[in-house]
Each structure stands twice: as structure tokens, then as C-alpha cells.
UniProtKB/TrEMBL annotation:
Native species: Kitasatospora terrestris
PROSITE patterns tied to this protein: ABC_TRANSPORTER_1, ABC_TRANSPORTER_2
Lineage: Bacteria, Bacillati, Actinomycetota, Actinomycetes, Kitasatosporales
Membrane topology: Peripheral membrane protein
Protein name: Daunorubicin resistance protein DrrA family ABC transporter ATP-binding protein
InterPro entries, sorted: AAA+_ATPase, ABC_transporter-like_ATP-bd, ABC_transporter-like_CS, ABC_transporter_ATP-binding, DrrA, P-loop_NTPase
Amino acid sequence: MTAPAIRVAGLTRRFGGVTALDAIDFAVPAGTVFGLLGPNGAGKTTAIRILTTILRPTAGRAEVLGRDVVAAAPAVRRLIGLAGQYAAVDANLTGRENLRLIGRLTRLPATRLAPRAAELLDRFDLTGAADRPVRTYSGGMRRRLDVAAALVADPPVLFLDEPTTGLDPQSRTALWQLIRELVADGTTVLLTTQYLEEADRLAHRVAVLAEGRVVADDAPGVLKARLGTTVIELGMGEDPRAARAAGLVRDRLRLAPEQEGALLRLATPDGSLLLLDLLHLLEGEALAPRTIAVREASLDDVYLALTGHRTGGPT
């Protein structure tokens, strides 16, 4: 069996009396996308900082391509690329100058600086803006340049911390395609994201963090199947009607619907049968729903069930 590209075992990090990571475990197969998800304060950024040798763990062990992130930190840094939440490129340099500078800092041979910069500018659709100052770039162009900068040394493992935050839908979709191409070429990607759709589309496997612990670790499809294949949403029109309906469902059907204002939500493997029971119950109490929606479970539903949070802001 091929060794994982990233292995985390019992990883713990405390800041004084606060435990940011509590003995977490996960493994990332080589040549895949692994999503690290969780609400604010769950420990995602702390995990990334440890894996990229920025921060030392309090206990436990982490390896990147078999190298310990503490004992062999210099070797790990030569094997990884990191693109954080905010573009780290120099706004006063051109795109080409930024990439050549990164190449020099990573000790790329002088003869490779210009060809590698040109190659990445072309791959990230930045050739036309290569000789313009980065301060003239759009947000999407800056993010693409930032990911390109993380790839100058052609690292086999890439860490992306919320890579598409703040991008418009077109730029986000374009960056998703670039990530797929990198993985198809053999790169291993670990990403954190506030967009559950992003993890659902890109990740081969996801780990969900809550209060510093891993509460789920599996393929997105498997996690959704565990929750229930169907989600029923009933729009009750008014919050008090939704509260009454939720109480009836709990008392009569022994189910626990999620209430979000005037909306009730239930995940179930028995969509059509449960919907008939719900409608019969509610209509008998003069609480017929104003709107009804039946859809497949999403990763966002899984995330809510595991963490008690829906996604919203940056993490």
C-alpha cells in the first residue's frame, strides 16, 4: 500500500489553557484533494500552520511525505507550497517579477527562473498581465498569482487556506479547474474552505473539525449517505407556525427537525414516505406548509449535523 502524502497522529496544540487541536488523526493519500472543514475556532488554521512548519505542536506527530514536520522541518519546507487566505505577492512588482523573486528565494537554478515564471503565467492565464504591477490586478488575478507563486518550486504537496475567499463565481470556477489539473498531474492538495460546495466538488475526502477534534473523516458522498439521502424543507410562512410544527413532529413522529426561522428541515433515507406522514400530520392541525422542497442531502447538511453550524463567514 502506498504511504500517505500527509499523516497526522494524535496532533495536539494548546495555547495556554486553550486546546486548539485535541489529538487529531487523519491521512491524505498522494495525488488527491483533502478538505479540512470546520466552524470558526475549530482548529483548521492551526493544523495548517503545524503542517507547514510555522508552528510546533504541543504533542502528537505530523509527517509530509515521510518527513517529520518538527524533526525535519527544512526538508518539509522544500517539499511544500502554501497559499494563505490573503495574496502574499508584492503589489509593486509585476506578476513576472513576483514569480522570479519566489524562484530565487526557493533557490531555483538561475537558468530556470524565466522559463518557470513564463510557464506558470501561461498556466494561470496571466501572460497578458505578466508585466503589469500586481496592484492593477483584479482579486481573481491576485489569487491565481498567489497560487502560482506557491508552485514555483514545483512542490509535490500544496496547502491552500481558503483559496477562493472573496472571488466572484467565474474566478472561483476557474481556480477549481486549475486545482483539478494540478492533482491530475500528481500534486497532493490539502485545502480549507468556507464554501461547502467547493469541498463537495473538489475533495476526494474531507475531515470535519469541531472544537479541535475530528468529528468525521470520509468521502463526501459517504458522509452525505450517512446523514440521509433526502432533505425535506417545509416553509411554514411564520416563525411561530414553524415552532408549533416542529413540536408536533418531535412529539408525534419522534423526529428532530432543524428550525431556521420559518423553515423546517429534515434529513431522511425515506423521503417520499416521510413527506406523506408530515403533510398528513400538519394538515390535520391546520399547519399545512406554504412551500415544500425535496432535494438530495448536501455537504452543508452534513456539516450542520456534525458541528451545529452552517457556513457563513471566513474561518
